[in-house]
Design brief:
Blueprint (H helix, E strand, L loop, with lengths): L4 E5 L1 H18 L5 E7 L3 H10 L4 E10 L10 E5 L9 E9 L3 H11 L5 E9 L12 E5 L4 E3 L15 E4 L1
Parallel strand pairs: 2-3, 2-5, 5-6, 6-7
Antiparallel strand pairs: 1-9, 3-4, 8-9
Helix pairs in contact: 1-2
Length: about 170
C-alpha cells in the first residue's frame, strides 16, 4: 500500500520562490565569479531550476556526500564521495542543497570548502527544517522554512522514491 501524502508546497509556489531566489542571487553576485555546487542526489532538480533563474554567467557542478548511520539519523561521520571538477580558486561558491535538517552535513561541507581556495562559501537550501537541528548552520538563501513532516518530491526522497513529484508533499 502506498503511503498517503499531503501537498505542502505546490509546483507553482516552487516556481515562484525559485525565481525570487534567482533574482536575489543575481543581485548579490553581480560582477563576481559564481559557482553553484549542487549536493547530489536531492538537490539536482532545485539546482537545475535555480541556475536557470540566475541571470549571470556562472559555473555549475555537483558534489556527493555520505554520512554513515541509520536512515533517520546521521552518525556525524561525513565523507565527500565526489569532489567538484571546477577550479574554485578565487570564486564565490554557493552550495545548493535540497534540505538542511540536522545541519551536520551542511556545516561540514561549509567548513570543508572554506578551507579551499574559494573566495566565499554560502548556502542556498530549498528547505530549512530546524526542528531537528543539531549543528548550528546559517543558510544564506532559504526557499521555504518548514518544520513538520517527512517531506518528499521535487528532488526529496524516501528510499530513493518520490523525487520526481512536481510539488513537495508530507508523507503520512
Amino acid at each position: 500500500m502506498k503511503p498517503s501524502r499531503q501537498e505542502i508546497v505546490s509546483s507553482r509556489q516552487l516556481q515562484t520562490r525559485v525565481e525570487e531566489l534567482g533574482r536575489r542571487i543575481t543581485e548579490d553576485y553581480q560582477g563576481r565569479q559564481l559557482v553553484l555546487l549542487g549536493v547530489l542526489n536531492g538537490a539536482f532538480i532545485f539546482a537545475a531550476d535555480l541556475c536557470r533563474a540566475i541571470d549571470l554567467d556562472l559555473e555549475i557542478d555537483f558534489i556527493r556526500v555520505t554520512s554513515y548511520g541509520s536512515a533517520t539519523e546521521s552518525s556525524g561521520t561525513i565523507q565527500l564521495l565526489k569532489e567538484p571538477s571546477i577550479d574554485l580558486t578565487g570564486k564565490e561558491v554557493l552550495l545548493v542543497e535540497d534540505i538542511v535538517d540536522t545541519g551536520t552535513t551542511m556545516a561540514w561541507l561549509q567548513e570543508h570548502f572554506r578551507k579551499s581556495p574559494a573566495n566565499t562559501v554560502r548556502i542556498c537550501s530549498l528547505i530549512d527544517k530546524k526542528e531537528r537541528r543539531i549543528v548550528p548552520v546559517d543558510v544564506d538563501y532559504i526557499g521555504f522554512a518548514l518544520d513538520k513532516g517527512f517531506l518528499v518530491g521535487y528532488g526529496l526522497d524516501c528510499a530513493e522514491k518520490y523525487r520526481n513529484l512536481p510539488a513537495i508533499y508530507s508523507l503520512e
